[in-house]
Amino acid sequence: MADYVEGKRAVIEALRTDVPLKKILLADNAKREPMIEDILRKARRRDLPVINVPRAELDQKSARGSHQGVMAEARPFPYVGVGDIVAAAQAYAEEHDGRALVVACDHITDAGNLGAIIRSAESVGASGLVIPNKRSARVEASTYKSSAGAVAHLPIAQTANIGNTIDRLKKDGFWACAATEHSENQMWEVNLKGKIILVLGNEHDGVSNLVLEHCDMAGRLPMMGSVESLNVAQAATACMYEWLRQNW
Q1: pLDDT tens, residue by residue, 165-184
Q2: pLDDT per residue over 152-163, tens digit each?
Q3: Which end of the chain is more exposed for a tag (fewer CB within 10 A), N or C?
Q4: Which CATH class is domain 3-74?
Q5: Which regions of the chain carry the CATH code 3.40.1280.10?
Q6: Angle CA 207–210–215, to nearest 5
Q7: 160/139 Cα distance (integer angstroms)
Q8: What are the start and end residues of each CATH 3.30.1330.30 domain in the chain?
Q9: Distance CA 221, CA 219 (A)
Q10: Residue range 85-104, pLDDT digits in tens
């Protein structure tokens, strides 16, 4: 299924931030006002084809009905295999005193959260990120924006079974730590030194019990204020930097 960026400002932003695009679709009755002209200029610079189509075709392709007469079709994201992430992590560990981080997302559903997690993972030097291939957010055009471009620099794999993938990494010397508010241990009381799989749960239910069974340890972030929990992307960032602090 094709992934589309809809609307004038969104298409301009995608062109500006180098989201990999296949083509621009422009309504045949679109007025050549300044924003449309800007899109056409940027498309020419990137050698992207601009195809005039009936507005009804854009209406049919639009998921939100907000295309404003212009849409951009994004290229499919080049996922890697889990084995590629394992190899990258082993190579990283050899060069960084035995430390490596792989992030596993247990059915995170919001593409914006996924992008923010990718941004933090890349910033701490994670070797890769693993997501389920079903019932999960995937890398799409909006992910490039929320990751601030980091998605282009971090290997990402899809897997049919997060638990089995955790077990595979454990056979290669990793320890799996779940980030969960139900843990008795605060995250900085957990030993995160060395090669770690940080397991993150989805926005509503957290890490599932099935996935928790594959984890060696768990940690939580203490909440000192009135709110009960952090957004998963915020919590992920704090946990990743705790891994980096312990391995610094």
Answers
A1: 999 999 999 999 999 999 99
A2: 899 999 999 999
A3: N
A4: alpha beta
A5: 82-246
A6: 70
A7: 16
A8: 3-74
A9: 7
A10: 999 999 999 999 999 999 99
Residues in the chain predicted with pLDDT less than 50, given as ranges, are none
- Fold classification of 82-246 is Alpha/beta knot (3.40.1280)
CA distance 207 to 205: 7
Query: Which residue in this structure is represented by tokens 């195809």?
Result: 51
Cβ-based burial of 144 (10 A; exposed 0-12, middle 13-18, buried ≥19): buried
Length of the chain as a residue count:
248
